[in-house]
């Protein structure tokens, strides 16, 4: 054997729920799982003492924006701003720091007016006061709303797709919504392949530091220029050179139906793979966000009478797309937050004449927030995956009921109900909207409290899940969502040697301590890709 890890509390998560003490690795695969005494009989090149710590299968984030996370980290971050004035000050500081440098645009991300002392959106005129020469965009935390300056608006008006998005652009205020936000990146300078590869390396390293060995990420439209071919080439080049430290399952987003179909007609299919990069599902965006009041609802918002949100595709268009995906052996994952959006997807899946012959038919709904008993039954009946983000507890718990009303609160953010009904649910973060910290995500799922520990009994406590259920969202269940349950997700002989080692046993500590538990080690394909310095 190459390596034996011993003296551990190794939760295998296999069907027997075995807890082992030692695990052996050879050529990146698990070849032994058992007791310390059994491990002593084997010769190996290296033995690593786990010192009684908890070892789990490596974590997988089943929905994030890995490339956009790296891009935002290098942009002006507005997540902690408590006023428009703070946002403007942060942007002004970056502009002043960039004097004398080549600066062709300024991208800012993360503001949330609900956290402001005086809730309001920024205005085009305020951005114009910063610069009339450099395009400036400030994107809300959700990514579905933004404001840009006059210079940016003029460039946006020149892109070929502007007639399609004109209704989502307010030229007076600079406000952009939905597809207008997405297409704004077309006016920005596209990064080179070398830069894209740098973004990938950076994100993978940060994910490794949080215990992740896998990611299901929406990347193809995530960078300025939206050059999906360059993004694909970057991933494939790193994979071919053996430089990917994470197993990547690409959620392939194209905003327009014709572009999604063209991608498939070029021959791309779910499951096509290199060593660590795999084509995953087609990604669709069917509605907006709750915070922006653009999530598609069957009834108007409680605090915005007459507004039922937006939909991207009509029912006929969705029906056509799902039939097309099924006929071409493609998985699909659809962004849906509102009940109307989910109803439409469930109907489209049910209508598809080719679903039963699609070997990659594990379709799913991303976010699944404003569910209800009818929608959950529909998801179960159509065997739809639920890509959920427990971290949204912290972001949304105080805004949901005012937005939709008490009468629609039955079975919203209903993760325990999903699992009890047998719906395949897996965990993600939607980073960079919020943090991808796995310990925080597990804490939110188990306690249903915000990061400050409130409310004491948890928000909708009936939907709390166990630590084991929460861990499986990011391990065993995540593997099922990518058709890799025979390779990943549990610690069993023959599977990839992907592990995370934690400083504390989160199965035994007070659940409130989970959020601050540190990742001590991440093992990817048998190699240690992260180890925390515990001597400080």
Topology summary:
Elements: E1 3-6, E2 9-11, E3 19-20, E4 22-26, E5 29-34, H1 36-39, E6 46-49, E7 54-57, E8 59-64, H2 66-73, E9 76-77, H3 84-97, E10 106-111, H4 124-128, E11 136-140, E12 145-148, H5 150-156, H6 162-165, E13 169-170, E14 175-177, H7 179-184, H8 193-209, E15 212-217, H9 228-240, E16 247-253, H10 257-265, E17 277-285, H11 315-327, E18 332-336, H12 339-351, E19 364-367, H13 373-381, E20 385-388, H14 392-396, H15 400-404, H16 415-421, E21 425-427, H17 438-447, H18 467-473, H19 476-481, E22 499-502, E23 519-524, E24 527-531
Parallel strand pairs: 1-6, 2-7, 8-15, 9-10, 10-11, 15-16, 16-17, 17-18, 18-19, 19-20, 20-21
Antiparallel strand pairs: 1-4, 2-3, 4-5, 7-22, 11-12, 12-14, 13-14, 22-23, 23-24
Helix pairs in contact: 2-8, 8-9, 11-12
Task: Describe, in plain words, how this protein is organized in 3D.
The chain is an alpha/beta fold and 536 residues long.
Summarize the structure.
This protein is α/β, with parallel strands linked by helices and 536 residues long. Helix content is 30%, strand content 20%.
Features:
alpha/beta, 536 residues, globular, 30% helix, 19 helices
How would you state the average pLDDT, rounded?
95
Rounded to an integer, what's the Rg over CA atoms?
23 Å
Structural class: alpha/beta
Low-confidence parts: none
Q: In terms of quaternary structure, what is this?
A: single chain
What is the makeup of the main sheet? 8 strands, parallel
The share of residues in extended strands comes to: 15-25%
Largest sheet, order of strands side by side? 8-15-16-17-18-19-20-21
Query: Count the helices. How many?
Result: 19
């Amino acid at each position: 054997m190459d390596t034996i890890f011993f003296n551990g509390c190794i939760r295998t998560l296999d069907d027997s729920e075995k807890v082992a003490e030692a695990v052996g690795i050879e050529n990146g695969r698990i070849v032994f799982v058992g007791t310390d005494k059994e491990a002593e009989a084997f010769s190996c090149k290296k033995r690593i003492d786990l010192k009684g710590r908890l070892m789990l299968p490596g974590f997988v984030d089943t929905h994030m924006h890995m490339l956009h996370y790296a891009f935002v980290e290098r942009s002006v971050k507005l997540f902690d701003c408590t006023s428009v004035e703070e946002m403007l000050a942060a942007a002004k500081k970056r502009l002043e720091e960039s004097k004398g440098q080549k600066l062709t645009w300024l991208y800012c991300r993360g503001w949330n007016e609900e956290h402001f002392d005086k809730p309001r959106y920024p205005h085009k005129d305020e951005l114009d006061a910063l610069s009339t020469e450099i395009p400036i965009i400030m994107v809300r935390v959700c990514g579905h709303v933004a404001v840009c300056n006059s210079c940016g608006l003029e460039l946006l008006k020149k892109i070929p797709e502007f007639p399609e998005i004109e209704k989502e652009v307010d030229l007076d205020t600079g406000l952009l919504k939905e597809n207008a936000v997405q297409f704004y990146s077309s006016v920005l300078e596209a990064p080179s392949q070398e830069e894209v590869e740098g973004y990938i390396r950076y994100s993978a390293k940060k994910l490794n530091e949080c215990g992740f060995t896998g990611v299901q990420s929406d990347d193809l439209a995530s960078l300025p220029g939206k050059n999906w071919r360059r993004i694909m080439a970057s991933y494939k080049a790193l994979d071919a050179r053996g430089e990917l430290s994470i197993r990547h399952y690409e959620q392939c987003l194209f905003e327009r139906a014709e572009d999604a179909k063209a991608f498939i007609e070029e021959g791309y299919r779910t499951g096509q793979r290199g060593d660590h990069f795999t084509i995953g599902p087609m990604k669709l965006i069917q509605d907006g966000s709750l915070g922006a009041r653009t999530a598609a609802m069957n009834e108007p918002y409680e605090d915005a009478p007459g507004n039922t949100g937006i939909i991207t595709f009509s029912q006929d268009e969705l029906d056509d797309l799902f039939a097309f995906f099924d006929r071409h052996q493609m998985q699909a994952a659809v962004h849906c937050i509102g009940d109307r959006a989910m109803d439409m997807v469930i109907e489209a899946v049910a209508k598809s004449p080719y679903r039963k012959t699609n070997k990659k038919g594990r379709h799913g709904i991303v976010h699944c927030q404003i569910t209800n008993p009818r929608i959950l039954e529909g998801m179960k009946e159509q065997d739809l995956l639920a890509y959920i983000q427990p971290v949204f507890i912290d972001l949304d718990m105080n805004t949901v009921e005012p937005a939709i009303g008490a009468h629609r609160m039955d079975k919203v953010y209903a993760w325990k109900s999903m699992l009890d009904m047998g719906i395949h649910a897996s965990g993600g973060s939607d980073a960079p909207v919020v943090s991808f910290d796995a310990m925080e995500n597990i804490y939110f799922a188990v306690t249903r409290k915000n990061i400050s520990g409130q409310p004491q009994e948890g928000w909708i406590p009936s939907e709390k899940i166990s630590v084991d259920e929460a861990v499986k969202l990011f391990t065993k269940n995540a593997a099922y969502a990518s058709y890799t349950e025979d390779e990943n997700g549990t610690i069993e002989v023959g599977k990839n040697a992907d592990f995370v080692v934690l400083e504390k046993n989160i199965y035994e500590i007070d659940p409130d301590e989970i959020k601050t538990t540190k990742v001590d080690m991440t093992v990817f394909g048998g190699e240690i890709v992260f180890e925390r310095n515990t001597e400080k």
